[in-house]
Amino acid sequence: MEEFPVEAVRGRFPALSLTDQGRRRIYLDNPAGTQVPQAVADAVSHCMLSTNANLGGFFETTVAAQQVVDGAHAAMADFLNASSVEEIVIGANMTTLTYHMSRTLGRTMKPGDEIIVTRMDHEGNVSPWLQLAEDLGLVVRFLPFDERSWQVEEAALKALLSDKTRLVALNYASNLTGSINRVKALTSIARQAGALVYVDAVQFAPHGLIDVQALGCDFLICSAYKFFGPHMGILWGRRDVIDGLKPYKCRCSSNGLPERFELGTPQIELMAGLTAAIDYFADLGASAGEGGSRRQRIAKAFEVSIAYENALARQLIEGLSDIEGLIIRGITDPERLAERVPTVSFTVEGIAPETIVRQMNAENIFLWSGHNYAWEIVHQLGIPAEQGVVRIGIAQYNTAAEIEETLESVHRVIAMLRQQRS
């Protein structure tokens, strides 16, 4: 395995060199949004300054703008291994796209039909389906995760499926526990029962290679700003499924794919940044020795980054496990690191998560507290929703030295807060 070129990677991200009153920044808020390479910012700027026009005309800037849009769809097709660019829908964000698709799919459902949602998902893949069910008189069944494995188990899904199940909404990886679900196996079970499968891959996409064709699902959605790109969402839909759907749209707008799902004027400059983000992965793969297609270079990038991130996750988990009264809410077994992304959440007995996070933020260590929209998870675990957890999220530009400094801060802050209580 090649050594991960973390210093070269860090050199691509200008935000990593910023300081505040001379103090360094440690970015561990990555599950909520990563920093971006210089190339992403440059692509957005170039598009706005050089190819700024709406689509559909015959002059230079509109032709160039169309090339940007086409390039973004092609880049995401490579990133997800879609069979066609027509399967790639780009929009405002994951939640907006999911609401849009839920209403579109609702046109194919009738009262009494059933939808399964998990207690492991982000609210963006729960509320749209709950509200659709309320509107249409559908039945919602909740699929819990196993608190020993921290994953959704196949047997639990089988127990909920019926001949009335029309859709299963599940996530690839949790934004709170970090656990990765066995999506391919779960999808196979759901589709054998005749249900569509809608996968939220927002938290998985920065940390693992996605192959929609191998997964067998019908829809998969992710967010570019979680994998070093601009603020936008991307939905993949299986061609034979989406081609038969009639979305809510303007009467005179295109009926082609994917245009019929992309409402209004696209965020063309952000699409330029999206392509640059995908090319960042391809460049990383090339630097690791892969000279093949963009998809092959992306795959190589994940091969080297996963090994690197897992080592940092192991360091973080081992360091947190030394603290008495601290409970990691997720997989801690070092033999199961491949079954989680490097997002680690914890609670400390008797101390509110926000109190810890405020102290660490004051030390310029950026991380989050709260439920982080993992609303069903905190309720299943009995964690007060108004408190939630402390969440530390690693990205490939973080370093072992940053993790060590963060662990020292966690130890120090918890000891200080306990002393204040006593």
From TrEMBL:
Q: Which organism is it from?
A: Mesorhizobium atlanticum
> Sorted alphabetically, which keywords does the UniProt record give?
Pyridoxal phosphate
Q: Where is the Aminotransferase class V domain?
A: 26-404
Question: What's this protein's name?
Answer: Cysteine desulfurase-like protein
Name the source's superkingdom. Answer: Bacteria
InterPro entries per record: Aminotrans_V_dom, Cys_dSase-rel, PyrdxlP-dep_Trfase, PyrdxlP-dep_Trfase_major, PyrdxlP-dep_Trfase_small
